[in-house]
Amino acid sequence: MRVTPLHPHIGARADGIDLRSPLTAELRTAIEAAMDRHAVLVFPGQDLDDDQHMAFGGAFGPVEHTRATVDAQRHRLKHAQMNDISNLDLNGEILKADDRRRMFNLGNRLWHSDSSFKRTPAKYSLLHARSIPPEGGETEFADMRAAWDALGQKMRGKLKDLVCWHSLLYSRAQLGFHGFTEEEQKQFAPVPQRMVRRHAGSGRLSLYLSAHIGRIDGFEVPEALALVRDLVEHATQREFVYQHRWQVGDLVVWDNRCTMHRGRAYDDTAYPRDMRRVTLEDCAPTLEQAL
Predict the structure, then answer these.
(1) Host domain of residue 226
(2) What is the CATH number of the domain that holds 260?
(3) What pLDDT does 135 receive?
(4) What burial class does residue 6 get, using C-beta atoms within 10 Å of its C-beta: 0-12 exposed, 13-18 middle, 19+ buried?
(5) What is the count of structural domains for the chain?
(6) What's the pLDDT score for residue 136?
(7) Is residue 49 part of a domain?
(8) Has this prediction a pTM greater than 0.90?
(9) Ranges under pLDDT 70 in the chain
(10) Does residue 291 lie in a domain region?
């Protein structure tokens, strides 16, 4: 495996391996080391089917059992645990402009960390490109360790012990998406997470931010949201961000424990974009992990 950095802080390209083959222990260790260093790895030209995609992800930890979406029973993919990050319906047709699933999926264009709204959040996400639009639809990744390092000492002291509450209800409300069913409201009930984490693989401290934050313990809501907005603006300065322009066959793996990401706009009512994601569960809730 050849690893080539793509950005001074975050992101690298990994060439020379075929992910359809079972991983050796040595290669798995090398990939984990590269992830700890770069937080985002791009594996180009990977002709994976869904079974191979699931198998590769499962080599690095337990796959999340539940998908977080509206109308979750309507799923077009083979594996119930695989996330459908596309603009396609059950028949592979482009979603209508007013489709509830399309409105919900627009939340992916906000800066976020996958599954921060679950009590035990995500470790790695593995997103595979099956079809892409002719332009747009990039994914951007922000290095939250570098963002933490760039904060002043006074701000670090203010943030280090804060506990935030995360929910999909909070992030979708930012876009005016309401009308969750009673069952969805229960499923997406807010959960607590540390604002600052120690990244296990590198030992570095990292901000843990997301559009899913709606409250901070000890703060009035307007003050909490103003603080989160300021921190997101700081953490997503261009010096901390790698933008990935997709090619069919790209498999991009990122570490949700020390990154945020967002999808960029494209003409999603005219062109199909078929992306499939396997998401791994972290070892424990953030409040149970040592800081």
Answers:
(1) 2-284
(2) 3.60.130.10
(3) 98
(4) middle
(5) 1
(6) 98
(7) yes
(8) yes
(9) 72
(10) no
290 inside domain = no
Contact 245, 138 (CB under 8 A): yes
Contact 239, 7 (CB under 8 A): no
Q: Identify the pLDDT of residue 74.
A: 82
- The reported pLDDT for the residue numbered 72 is 66
Report pLDDT digits (tens) over 139-181.
999 999 999 999 999 999 999 999 999 999 999 999 999 989 9
Residue 174 inside a domain? The answer is yes
Note the pLDDT of residue 68: 83
